[in-house]
Design goal:
The chain is α/β, with parallel strands linked by helices and 414 residues long. It folds into 2 domains: 2-203, Rossmann fold (3-Layer(aba) Sandwich); 214-400, 3-Layer(aba) Sandwich (Rossmann fold), CATH 3.40.50. Helices cover 46% and strands 16% of the residues. It is built from 17 helices and 14 strands. It has helices at residues 2-25, 59-75, 88-98, 112-122, 136-144, 158-164, 168-175, 186-195, 214-226, 242-253, 270-280, 308-314, 333-337, 352-361, 370-381, 384-400, 404-411, and strands at residues 51-55, 80-85, 102-106, 124-130, 149-154, 180-183, 200-202, 231-238, 258-264, 284-286, 299-301, 317-320, 342-344, 364-366. Strands 3-2-1-4-5-6-7 form a 7-stranded parallel β-sheet, sandwiched between helices. β2, α3 (88-98) and β3 form a beta-alpha-beta unit. α2 runs parallel beside α3 (88-98), α2 (59-75) packs across α17 and α9 crosses α12 (308-314). The two termini are 30 Å apart.
Length: 414
């Protein structure tokens, strides 16, 4: 009955979901492509090989899934990987990472008929959901179709835990159907067990196993050389409202030799952030126009996709966005993986374990606001020894937390 009520609610929300696609398409027209797939209708033929299905909502989950997908391809060369997404950027990332070696499409909305059509079309031997994807009708349909289902790289913040606890019966019924749950950390495992998950283990975070592409490091080195003697502060994956705080703090600090590189999290905001920089009166350049840095340039707007490792490789200090305001932070592991000192704001619930671990290891510093961030960055950039210690600590921190891929691989059975 709980799932029936949930399904009725989904149908009631369907007009809003369709309007959401139209609204997002104003900035990203790809939201109106492949719409039938969101209801379980596909043009792709069923692959001739047995299918291993893995679901990664968007860009971050897709990148995190890369080492696991590579391992599955190596250990099961006679199978075809099906990678599903919910966003166009996630889908593009999957296609860019794997070319034609992986089949990509959208996972349908969680309507009973739609998920049944999806499973009947592709007939996966096993399903792997990344992070926190608990869809009651999908989970139930997998049980009916005898598809063992795993939740891996699972994380559940206090905030998300509180939301799921409002629907305890529905959460419990879904979680108990998973063949296995591989949590990122002990706190995630505890919360998942508290909601009713039974086969829970702690496997660590797959993002520590993501290899930095050498060509991205080379590109970042070329960018760094183009900056000359300028010191580079990267503001990575910034969210709405954070850029204004950073620009105001930079103006107040008045350090002309500092070059600030801002890379917004969402590509649809590139023009919006460019307009904001212009209104603040800063001289800036767009990455899309090249990376030859003029002497008077104060800001580089990173308006490109798929180059975040290069941005990290090019900077001296990295601030991880989504943490100044209440967004829960983005992933700081990418910065640590190339040995960069990291600054994070107060809101880090999405990556709580990784942030606390990095701070404890001496690889990251937590700041309270944008003003403190700029001051901390300036102090670090003037202290070569402190920079060296943090760079070394970042690399050691990442190496110490690798191995989640093998633990997840050992868990998955069909």
């Amino acid at each position: 009955m709980k799932r029936f009520a949930y399904t009725l609610l989904l149908y009631a929300l369907l007009p809003g979901a369709l309007w959401h696609l139209v609204w997002r398409a104003r900035r990203q027209p790809d939201y109106l492509r492949h719409v039938p797939e969101r209801f379980g209708y596909y043009r792709q033929a069923r692959p001739a090989q047995p299918v291993i299905w893995l679901h990664a909502v968007s860009v971050g989950e897709t990148r995190a899934a890369e080492p696991l997908i590579r391992a599955l391809q190596k250990h099961h060369p006679d199978h075809r990987i099906l990678l599903t997404h919910m966003t166009p950027t996630g889908r593009k990332t999957g296609s860019a990472l794997f070319d034609d070696s992986v089949l990509t499409c959208y996972l349908p909305y969680d309507f009973p008929g739609a998920v049944a059509r999806f499973l009947e079309r592709f007939r996966p031997r096993v399903g792997v959901l990344m992070e926190t994807e608990i869809w009651p009708n999908l989970v139930n349909a997998c049980g009916e179709h005898r598809v063992p289902l795993y939740l891996v790289n699972a994380r559940l913040s206090e905030k998300s835990w509180a939301k799921y606890r409002k629907f305890p019966d529905l959460a419990r019924a879904s979680l108990r159907q998973f063949a296995g749950v591989a949590a990122q950390g002990a706190d995630d495992a505890r919360r998942l067990r508290g909601l009713g998950a039974t086969a829970v283990s702690v496997a660590g975070n797959l993002k520590f196993d993501v290899a930095v592409p050498p060509e991205q490091v080379t590109l970042g080195g070329a960018w760094r050389a183009a900056c000359g003697s300028r010191q580079v502060l990267l503001a990575a994956s910034t969210r709405d409202g954070e850029e204004a705080l950073l620009l105001d703090a930079m103006a107040a600090l008045d350090v002309p030799e500092l070059l600030l590189v801002i890379v917004p999290r969402h590509p649809q905001r590139f023009d919006e952030v460019a307009a904001l920089i212009e209104r603040r009166g800063f001289r800036y350049q767009r990455r899309s126009a090249g990376f030859a840095v003029d002497p008077g340039t104060r800001i580089i707007l990173g308006d490109s996709m798929g180059e975040m490792p290069a941005y990290y490789a090019a900077c001296d200090v990295a601030f991880v966005g989504g943490s100044l305001l209440a967004y829960g932070a983005q992933n700081l592991i990418e910065a640590c993986a190339v040995g960069k000192p990291v600054l994070v704001g107060p809101s880090t619930y999405n990556f709580a374990d990784a942030v606390e671990g990095a701070v404890a290891a001496g690889a990251a510093l937590r700041v309270s606001d944008a003003t403190e961030l700029m001051r901390a960055a300036r102090q670090l950039l003037l202290d070569a020894e402190a920079m060296r210690r943090m760079r070394e600590a970042a690399l050691v921190f990442c190496k110490a937390h690798q191995g989640a891929t093998q633990r997840v691989l050992d868990l998955i059975r069909w």
